[in-house]
């Protein structure tokens, strides 16, 4: 996007900063995110929320604001400068709104950039896995009493397996012969795994696993770390909704324990790292402070498999739909992502069985 336009949008918000330049952060698959550099610090993160996917953007932004305020209240004993590094802070518009809506219908929100923070697409040492576990565990712990009545369910049935199977099955009916043939092996695997991949959903529906407030997108790149590898702040709270602990545990494991990136095409280097699993789990449970039931704990390994699978299923579905949901950089991008996740499931199954 051209600088003039970004600057214009940036200046619709209430701040005293002078725009210098912007730079797109390309890690997300849905929204457009820009780092805005200003004459003096702090810098900012300007984000366009994709309203084709998020149908109720005001509701989504309201969720984000309230979740931040809730966590801030819990951490209010910290000094202000520290607090600002531990929780996202949003900037209102000059018209005192939580978001700016452009003439073109796009929705924008602005937050402060947390300086000297680092993100990882892949994890290279156990310490990050452990710190990531602590960070996401703490987030769940701090939001456990967040009033669910205040939350908009931004994408209903987001992690509901039956819903994702239904979308997959309807994609099978409309997909091109070429893509169906190409994906044949994986389409069969999806059918084979159906029963096992519904176990967590059934436990949720029967009430054996309790509902909680969950983040629902705990990939490791949604955790900020300090220079010396300490967990700082959980970001991308777009999808905070009621869920089960397994969503957050499993999605984090999916990304932390993958020795390669989510879209690595050399499947030989896609392996499941069991040491990172153990380190993450240790940090996570430490911060969950014994609030998990024995059933919740028993099913954590299955969560790793189920959440990796649900991403494989969604990437494959989008491939069959000719890439209408996720941003893709080339023709087979979604298919490569799906294959990668299936390879991770295989590696996880091998390694875990050795335990
Ligand atoms: C999407 O856009 P991003 O990267 O925050 C997706 C997640 C997936 C993730 C896969 C709303 O998240 O569910 O886990 O891609 N978010 C939505 O990397 O669908
Ligand atoms: Mg997200």
**Fraction of residues in β-strands:** 5-15%
Count of helical segments?
Answer: 13
Backbone CA Rg: 20 Å
Low-confidence stretches: none
CATH homology superfamily name of the largest domain: Aminoglycoside phosphotransferase (APH), C-terminal lobe
Largest sheet: 6 strands, antiparallel
Give the beta-strand count: 10
Helix-strand topology string: HEEEHHEEEHHHHHEEEEHHHHH
Textual characterization of the structure:
A hairpin with a 6-residue loop joins strand 1 (about 20-25) and strand 2. Helix 12 (about 300-320) packs antiparallel against helix 13. The protein has 13 helices and 10 strands. The strands form 3 sheets. Strands 1, 2, 3, 4, 5 and 6 form a 6-stranded antiparallel β-sheet that branches. Strands 7-10 form a two-stranded antiparallel sheet. It folds into 2 domains: about 1-110, Phosphorylase Kinase, domain 1 (2-Layer Sandwich), CATH 3.30.200.20; about 125-355, Aminoglycoside phosphotransferase (APH), C-terminal lobe (Aminoglycoside 3'-phosphotransferase, Chain: A, domain 2, Alpha-Beta Complex). It has about 350 residues and is of the alpha+beta class. The longest helix has 22 residues, at about 335-355. Helix content is about 45%, strand content about 10%. Magnesium ion binds near residues 217, 236, 238 and 239.
């Amino acid at each position: 996007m051209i600088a003039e336009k970004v600057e214009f949008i940036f200046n619709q918000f209430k701040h005293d900063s002078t725009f210098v330049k912007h730079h797109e952060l390309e890690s997300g698959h849905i929204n457009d995110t820009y780092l805005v550099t200003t004459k003096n610090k702090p810098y900012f993160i300007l984000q366009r929320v994709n309203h084709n996917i998020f149908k109720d953007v005001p509701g989504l932004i309201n969720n984000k604001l309230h979740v931040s305020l809730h966590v801030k209240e819990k951490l209010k004993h910290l000094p202000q400068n520290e607090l600002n590094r531990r929780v996202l802070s949003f900037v209102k518009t000059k018209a005192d709104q939580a978001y700016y809506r452009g003439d073109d219908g796009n929705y924008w929100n602005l937050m402060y950039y947390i300086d000297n923070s680092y993100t990882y697409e892949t994890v290279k040492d156990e310490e990050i896995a452990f710190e990531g576990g602590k960070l996401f565990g703490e987030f769940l712990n701090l939001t456990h009493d967040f009033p669910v009545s205040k939350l908009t369910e931004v994408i209903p049935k987001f992690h509901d397996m039956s819903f994702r199977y239904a979308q997959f099955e309807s994609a099978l009916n409309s997909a091109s012969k070429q893509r169906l043939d190409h994906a044949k092996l994986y389409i069969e695997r999806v059918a084979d795994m159906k029963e096992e991949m519904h176990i967590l959903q059934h436990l949720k529906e029967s009430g054996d696993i309790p509902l909680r407030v969950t983040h629902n997108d705990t990939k490791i790149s949604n955790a900020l770390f300090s220079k010396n590898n300490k967990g700082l702040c959980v970001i991308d709270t777009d999808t905070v909704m009621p869920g089960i602990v397994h969503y957050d545990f499993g999605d984090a494991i999916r990304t932390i324990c993958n020795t390669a990136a989510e879209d690595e095409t050399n499947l030989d280097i896609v392996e499941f790292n069991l040491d990172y699993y153990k380190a993450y789990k240790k940090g996570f449970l430490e911060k969950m402070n014994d609030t998990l039931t024995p059933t919740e704990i028993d099913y954590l390994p299955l969560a790793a498999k189920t959440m990796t699978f649900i991403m494989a299923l969604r990437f494959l579905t989008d491939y069959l739909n000719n890439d209408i949901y996720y941003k893709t950089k080339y023709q087979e991008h979604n298919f490569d992502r799906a294959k990668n996740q299936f390879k991770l499931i295989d590696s996880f199954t091998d390694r875990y069985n050795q335990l």
